[in-house]
Amino acid sequence: MSASPSTASPNGDPKSKPIDGAAPGAASPSSGAEAPAKAAADSSVAPSAAGTSSGRPAELSYSQLLRDLDKGLVKDLELSPRQREVRVTFQDGRKESVAVFSNDQMLLRAAEEARVPLTVRDDRKDEAAAGLLGNVLLVVLLLTGLSLLLRRSASAANKAMGFGRSQPRLQEDGTVTVRFEDVAGIGEAKEELQEVVTFLQSPERFTSLGAKIPRGVLLVGPPGTGKTLLAKAIAGEAGVPFFSMAASEFVELFVGVGASRVRDLFRKAKAKAPCIIFIDEIDAVGRQRGAGIGGGNDEREQTLNQLLTEMDGFEENSGVILLAATNRPDVLDSALMRPGRFDRRITVDLPDRRGREAILAVHARSRPLGPKVSLGVWASRTPGFSGADLANLLNEAAILTARRQQTVLDDAALSDALERITMGLTVAPLQDGAKKRLIAYHEVGHALLTTLVPHADKLDKVTLLPRAGGVGGFARMMPDEDILDSGLITKAYLQARLVVALGGRAAELVVFGASEVTQGASGDLLLVSRICREMVTRYGFSSLGPVALEGDGAEVFLGRDLIHTRPGYADRTGREIDLRVRTLAQEALDQAVSLLETRRPLLDDLVDRLVEEETLQGEDFRRIVEAYESAAASAGAGQPSPAVAEDIAASVSSACRI
């Protein structure tokens, strides 16, 4: 297709017209020149088509678009003014996009001259839709953020309001598996609580006789004696709802929370009456009012006041029994302890030997014991142990047995567990011979005196195996079971304890001299000072007479020790007390030194044996001492001479080794 020259009409119409003088069908003078241009144009179009057919998109320039329009290769155009581009559809189906000016008049004239349809795309609809979508998304985001903020605010408000609500742990019937048969060693306390359970299960047996259900039961006893376990047993046996809560959960940061929680707790309990409320460690809120300095305890006192009102106030709360536990009954408020609130006070003491054996039997149900293990023997070796201590003993023995890859718990595992609990972890043995021998003299001094002195505790074992915490060795005594059960301490027993406690220092004085004693007896001296002072000021075991000059020294309230700083005696009496304390301690030390000096060969022989074997059991130790004493007695009246004593010690040593 050849293009003829065009001239613009006077009115600007750019229509093509033939040159004057030329016939319409004749060739123009420039036809010869246009032939090469046509060939060149055809050759320029061919590669583009070839490139499209081969799959490689050809980039279309603005000038090329104008030429393609002039050649009639363009099928239609779609102009997007806001995007500043025109989408070109060619006759062969290809589509291209070409960037144009926003007000491109040249392209419009070229499309009009080529009579190519030109469509102007209305982008305002797309922009309106996009704007609407953006606004909708913005509103959705704002609403979502607002709802989250309101939800968090409501949650915070509910949480703040929830501070006044109690969170007791409610145990319905059948959810607690602990029963009274799981509680051993505290028979009297268990019987009292079984009666409370009977009150709840069959109240008509008591109400027919005019008896009233007790409002409160207070469990009192040392830590680990089974107070909380008894409460669990009641929850398992009673068959009524059981609310449990720690006293420390009442008082929080905000003022008034404690009293509000007490009210909420009793409201929930009354809704499920008859029921039991158990408050553990009630001394956290039940301490004596007015004992502090300032207003720091006002919140706790308000909680206590509300508790007193709920237990025995104007409103009746029949069917709700309050069960509480504490190991500090001396700090509780007197209003809390009166009848009508805590009607019963049950003391849960440390178990005796039979009780310890029963507790060991309960905890040994799930642990395989060796055939030679006697629970009665181990009950005798653990005086003063609570139920928790005995459970820990068997648990430590089970851990040691598993560590040693054994299948049953034997006496060795129990013995190691006992030492681990009472003395600490075992460390590497001492390598310094001189230090080891010095420690041996110190410990043998204790052990020998506890064997010689009447009324002293019984020796269990003496060892040089060091323990964590700087303990190079120890001599363990078993307290007198009768004293533990009765609580009665004689003057002779305390004097024997003083002599035994100073046995280590006495042995160092006898063997090494006054200039070579060590600080190893520092703990013993603290014990001696405390016992001597109590003998003088509390028990009347001195020449000052039967007077109690001091209390037990347990000032547990802030401010009370500041008010009562002055002692209840004169300064002269205080000096007399100090003199009597020093006199008792010195007399005990002199007696210990005297007993060891007259038995120096026996002391040396026991030290040699202990250094060699590192551990001597109490029975073996007593057998050696008794053999020496009997041989010395048969050698003649009075104390034997040093030479005779050495011969006796040598013969006893050889006999015991055989």
Brief overview:
The protein has about 650 residues and is α/β, with parallel strands linked by helices. Helix content is about 50%, strand content about 10%. The protein has 25 helices and 13 strands.
Rg is: 51 Å
- Assign a percent range to the helix content: 40-55%
Which consecutive residue ranges, at least 5 long each, have pLDDT under 50?
1-57, 556-563, 654-658
SS-derived structural category: alpha/beta
Number of strands: 13
What is the number of independent domains? 4
- Total DSSP helices: 25
The CA-CA distance between the termini, in Å, is: 137 Å
CATH-defined fold name of the largest domain: Methane Monooxygenase Hydroxylase, Chain G, domain 1
Strand order of the largest sheet: 5-7-8-9-6-10
Beta-strand proportion: 5-15%
The CATH homologous superfamily of the largest domain is named: Peptidase M41
* Rounded mean pLDDT score: 79
The CATH architecture assignment of the largest domain turns out to be Up-down Bundle
**Biggest beta sheet attributes:** 6 strands, mixed
In the CATH scheme, the class of the largest domain would be Mainly Alpha
